[in-house]
Amino acid sequence: MTLKQLQIVIAVADTRSFSKAGEQVSLAQSTISQHIKALEDELGVRLFDRSATQVALTAVGRLFYDHAVGILRHCEETRAAVRRFQGLDEATVRIGASTIPAACLIPDLMGRLTARHPGIRLEVRQGDSQDVIQMLLNDQVELAVVGSRPEQPELSAQVVATDRIILTARPDVAMKRQLQLHQLPDCRLIIRESGSGTRQATDAALRRAGLEPTALTVSAQFGSSEALRRAVLGSGNYAFISALAVEPELASGALVEVAITGLHIERAFYLAWKHGSSLSPAAIRFTHLLTDAQ
Fold first, then answer.
1. Domain boundary among 87, 112, 146
2. Do 82 and 96 belong together in one domain?
3. Cα separation of 129 and 102, whole Å?
4. How far apart are CA 51 and CA 62, in angstroms?
5. 272 and which of 45, 47, 51, 144 could share a cystine (Cβ 3.0–4.6 Å)?
């Protein structure tokens, strides 16, 4: 069964004539007859009653006709959807994003995205960097924005932004704004989960400076920067957190940055996609906006 055969059945039923149907679909009458016979043989039923004066649908033919009309209508709707997709009039980009990109980088792009491409809709799924990379590998998202470089060989990535990770606390807790590295284990810390880019960058920087992360005094672990921020504001603890995540609190004085001699933590955010994949036009536009913003 082919779409052409469906079109032929509809044409014959509508015109009640093999010859007129042939004119409608640009085929010879004999070819129309061959297609109908082949279809009836395949299905094992008669679709048309034929007489010297007219051609009429049988009962099963009317059932087939109704379904054929629906199938062709859905085909046309599918073609129209693809045309809209290609023209960016109606397209969805599925993006996976770790905490900071989801909370800061991507929302900041919405104004320009809406102004330039009002038909593009973003569907953002959030998780830690490892979770988001897994979403990309499983084809649950088309793009990923994460806080650590993907190591999987099937993924490509490029840097789209940078961020500082700072030690922060309330001003009444952080009586000193400068600490030595050996004093850090004396600070009660709230930390991110092991799969987060923040945690990975912090642990790597501490080891480079000569301090094992296991030496730290950890009072709690949270799965998002927002939870970390609120916990620091409501407790007498310190936290290593993205400077982007606490910009308002640093500006207002609700939190302060505590410098650590010899320790500077900077990390990059990466845009990742499957190597060799054909990105949708909408995903390409989003990629251009994200890279142009830097």
1. 87
2. no
3. 11
4. 17
5. 144
One-letter identity of residue 249: E
Q: What angle do CA 217, 221, 224 make, to 5 degrees?
A: 140
**Owning domain of residue 126:** 91-160+269-292
Distance CA 38, CA 221 (A): 68
On the 0-12 / 13-18 / 19+ scale of CB atoms within 10 A, 238 is buried
- CB atoms near residue 72 (< 10 Å): 14
Tens-digit pLDDT profile for residues 123-151: 999 988 889 999 999 989 999 999 888 99
Is a pLDDT exceeding 60 seen at residue 225?
yes
pLDDT of residue 69: 92
Q: What's 13's DSSP letter?
A: H
C-alpha dist (Å) from residue 63 to 5, 69, 181, 220: 15, 10, 79, 65
Is there a single domain that holds both residue 140 and residue 235? Answer: no
My answer on whether 168 and 144 are in the same domain is: no
Q: Is the dihedral of CA 125, 129, 131, 133 positive or negative?
A: positive
Q: Is the pTM of this model over 0.85?
A: no
What CATH code is carried by the domain that includes residue 102?
Answer: 3.40.190.10
Single-letter code of the amino acid located at 188: R
What single letter denotes the amino acid at residue 194? S
Closest to 36 measured CA to CA, from 78, 7, 69:
7
Residue 143 shares a structural domain with residue 288: yes
**Distance of alpha carbon 254 from alpha carbon 170, whole angstroms:** 6
